[in-house]
Write a structure and sequence with these properties.
436 residues, alpha/beta, Rossmann fold, OB fold (Dihydrolipoamide Acetyltransferase, E2P), 6-stranded parallel sheet, 5-stranded mixed beta barrel, 13 helices, 18 strands, globular, binds iron/sulfur cluster
Length: 436
């Protein structure tokens, strides 16, 4: 019988990567091993890497080298998008004992045992383009005891010209509906009040399952009774079905929040990004969604300084975005990612210009958030309280993704509570608990 290992995890990147790590932790725990904090001594260190930007890849390399240097006797395992996109490069890093691509995580324990027994570096990385099965890893809670993330979709085949993800995550794969029901039942039974459905390209859920769409996955999750709210992770605007909006209007457990990455609001920039829509399409969707779902929050991502983006194009886009009924933006200065078409294009925008554009759009973000938060003043909102600050204030989220602070006690944590919203700013809304 293998002795129990102390296993530590480092995770870089997106929520999907974090949920993959949580699932791997659950596998080790289920096999009798202990998960220790990353800064503590361990027998096995697992780094779940990210390469969405060059910086992400550099940080992954630095972390690998540091762990090898600081823990020469431990097994250092590298998994995630770095070995999947650059296996040979990772193999060349001295001291790495095991590398695992984005397809072999279910076999991780056996691979670790083999690497520890053999003393020779082990590698399990296959061509991701050939992946067909959704990796059915066990679900596990992340940090919060209130909200759980459930990954139901993997892979992307859209090939936006700035994005490396399709090369790291492979073709579309979906968690079968019965697996979704089973996992949601487990999470609800474990007491989670909010479940967030996640995917690399969530809107493509079901593309590999004939006759199945994201709407079916949402209905399947909502068919499980004993949890309070279902939230959707990031979704491509072109994949928001009318049925989903109607369900969001009619089903109070489905959060009135859509995070729809826009990336740009100028059609020629969108075309060069290989995004499958124009600004007018996004405008129409916003209008239809707000008409159908009162109180809906639509948030988005925007890349500034994409190669070839002129001052005029940016300014026009900034004004368009500022006028849209959005509840907030995430602003990303374009970061050339080696291995993507756009990184090789000559008309790169200077860093100082990117910085200035990011600053200008962050100001728009602040105004949009303040405007949306203000729209809740005078209303009563159901808030899922999660934390209590040193100042005694409790904090939580509304279904339409507004952070609310109120005077309340620990008994409110992990529960849905009605709050009368009294004031708001760009960061928070403040209210008084009106019903326990
Ligand atoms: S949709 Fe585009 S940006 Fe999103 S993961 Fe796929 S290629 Fe990347």
């Amino acid at each position: 019988m293998n002795p129990a290992w102390r296993v530590a995890f480092y995770t870089l990147g997106c929520k999907v990567n974090q949920s993959d790590t949580a699932a791997m932790e659950a596998m080790f725990r289920a096999a009798g091993h202990s998960i220790v904090p990353a800064e503590e001594a361990a027998d096995v260190y697992v780094i779940n890497t990210c390469v969405v930007t060059n910086v992400g890849q550099k940080k992954s390399r630095q972390m690998i080298r540091r762990l090898v240097r600081e823990h020469p006797a431990a097994l250092v395992v590298v998994t995630g998008c770095y070995p999947q996109t650059a296996a040979e490069e990772v193999r060349q890093i001295p001291g790495v004992g095991l590398i695992v691509g984005n397809q072999h995580r279910p076999q991780l324990l056996a691979l670790v045992a083999a690497a520890k027994a053999g003393g020779q570096p082990v590698s399990a990385v296959d061509k991701i383009t050939q992946a067909r099965e959704f990796e059915d890893l066990p679900i596990a809670a992340l940090s919060s005891r209130t909200r759980a993330f459930l990954k139901i979709q993997e892979g992307c085949q859209q090939y936006c010209s700035y994005c490396i993800i399709p090369y790291a995550r492979g073709p579309y794969r979906s968690r079968p509906l019965d697996s979704i029901r089973r996992e949601v039942e487990k999470l609800a039974a474990a007491g989670f009040q909010e479940i967030v459905l996640l995917g690399i390209h969530l809107g493509a859920y079901g593309r590999d399952l004939p006759g199945v769409t994201l709407l079916d996955a949402v209905k399947t999750a909502l068919s499980v009774p004993n949890f309070a709210r279902l939230r959707l992770g990031s979704l491509e605007s072109v994949e928001v079905e009318a049925g989903l909006l109607e369900l969001m209007r009619d089903e109070p457990r489905l959060c009135r929040h859509l995070h729809l990455p826009l990336q740009a609001a100028d059609d020629s920039v969108l075309q060069r990004m290989n995004r499958p829509y124009q600004a007018a399409d996004f405008d129409r969707l916003l209008a239809a969604a707000h008409r159908l779902v009162p109180g809906l929050a639509v948030t988005t991502d925007v890349i500034v300084g994409f190669p070839g983006e002129t001052d005029e194009q940016f300014e026009r886009a900034r004004q368009t975005i500022a006028a849209w009924p959005l509840a907030g933006l995430h602003v990303f200065p374009y970061s050339p990612r080696q291995g993507t078409p756009a990184a090789a294009w000559p008309e790169q925008v200077p860093e100082a210009v990117k910085k200035a554009r990011a600053h200008a759009l962050s100001e728009v973000d602040r105004q949009l958030r303040a405007r949306f938060h203000q729209s809740l003043v005078g209303t009563t909102q159901r808030v899922l309280f999660e934390t209590q600050g040193a100042d005694g204030l409790i904090e939580g989220l509304t279904d339409n993704y507004v952070r609310v602070m109120a005077v309340g006690d620990e008994a409110c944590l992990g529960r849905l509570v009605d709050v009368a919203i009294q004031s708001a700013n760009a960061e928070f809304a403040f209210g008084v608990i009106s019903q326990q």
